[in-house]
Specification:
Radius of gyration: 14 Å
Structural class: mainly beta
Number of helices: 0
Oligomer: single chain
Length: 118
Amino acid sequence: QVQLVESGGGLVQAGGSLRLSCVASNTGYIRVHSMGWFRQAPGQRRELVAAITDGGRINYLDSVKGRFTISRDNAKNTVYLQMNSLKPEDTAVYYCNAEIGWSHSAYWGQGTQVTVSS
C-alpha cells in the first residue's frame, strides 16, 4: 500500500522558515509522477501551493513565489518544501500529494499543521 508520510510542520513567527518533507513509500517499481503540496486553512478550499514533475517542471501558487521552494529527490521518492519569509496567512494544514503509476492515481498524506504567528 502506497503511503505518503509528511514531516516538518510546526509553529513559527512571521518572517521565519520551515521545511516540509514527504516520502512516498511502498511504491516498488511504480513510477511517481508529479509530487506537490496543497494547503487548507479553516473554512477555505484546499489549494495547490507548489508541484514538481519527475522531469523537474515546477508550478507555484502566486502568493508564495519568491518565498517557497519545492524540490524532490527522485531516487528517494521524496519531495521538500522550503518555506521562507512566512506570513500569518500561510497558516494552514499542508498536505503532500503524489500522482503514481500508469493511471496517475492521486495519493495524499495525512497533513501537517503550519502555524505562523504575527
